Amino acid sequence: MVIIAGSRRIRRTPFSDGVEAFGVKGYTVYNHMLLPTVFRSVEEDYHHLKSAVQVWDVAVERQVEIRGPDAARLMQMLTPRDLRAMQPGMCYYVPMVDETGGMLNDPVAVMIAEDRYWVSIADSDLLFWVKGLAYGLRLDVLVDEPDVSPLAIQGPKADELAARVFGDKVKDLKFFRFGRFDFMGQDMIVARSGYSKQGGFEVYVEGGKNGMPLWNALMEAGKDLDVHAGCPNVIERIEGGLLSYGNDMTRDNTPHEAGLGRFCSTETAIGCVGRDALLRVSKEGPVKQIRGLRIEGSVPPCDRAWPIMDADGQYQIGAVTSAAWSPDFETNVAIGMVRMTHWDPRTDVDVVTQAGVFPAVVQETFWI
Ligand code: THG
To answer: Domain count of the chain?
Structure first.
């Protein structure tokens, strides 16, 4: 891969100076912003994430703020997940769909107050869709991208590190709940969440100027915990079955195809724009769905969708969209969309990459 030329369109984050001081070796672009992909090597980063603690610049998880009397109504229009039980202090993982039931994003929704939400988005310009709905339907809401930048603390020692900076009370947070914690006289929203299966927190840093002071405090407080700068790790997230919007699913997929049916209650999600379309597919069930796959051999980087062929090489029955060598499971772990004729566990298939064809097996579950 060649180097990404910097420009104003590819936004830096409040933590970019810290990331660069730590020797970031690779970036991708996500929501028009820099997202680190590797510090030492993807494998070294992986082992460290699973044994210590890392601080991640995930400012690319931009917030779409929805504020005003119609905020709750607009939120329910966006998702087939039933939001009626959501309360301030809660976070929900919410598939968001268009009028055809196609996925537009898979954000974490953060309920700040009865009339105020942050939608912490994956990589698509959801702001325009939300603004369009609000304007077109003359809803009484303000929709904008606030100056909020998430910083994640992930890994088995995340509780210890977070407690040193925010106090012991932060350890009492339950999964997908948030609270307000003081940092140097500043109230910060801290949630127990994050894009890894190792556990940890996300701090929603309000005001770019507050970014580096928090980054530096975490690095200082975590010295004896061997804290590193880190980033979402492709190996660990595939092992955990954490999906990547734009890679593993797109607007061409329903949440059910993406295996996110458990986050949908389409029947009771009254007002959801895609409800009629999804009611039909949720009754019949999808004909293809996300699966974990084990691929044998020395596969190249997964920078494109790899066709999955049936074992005779006759028909395409799906596509692999994420893959990486897993040192812990000693196999290539992968995520792909597989047709129902071949989605049963232990089905043998072939994966066609840019470097040749590799045998693969459909998995019962993901790895962690
Ligand atoms: N945190 C925040 N914003 C985000 C992400 C995040 N925006 C972009 C991206 N990640 C959105 N995608 C996901 C995908 C998975 C999860 C969160 C966001 C996730 N899933 C858990 C799982 O599948 O095991 C738990 C979901 C649940 O049980 O509710 O955490 O990471 N702020």
So the answer is: 3
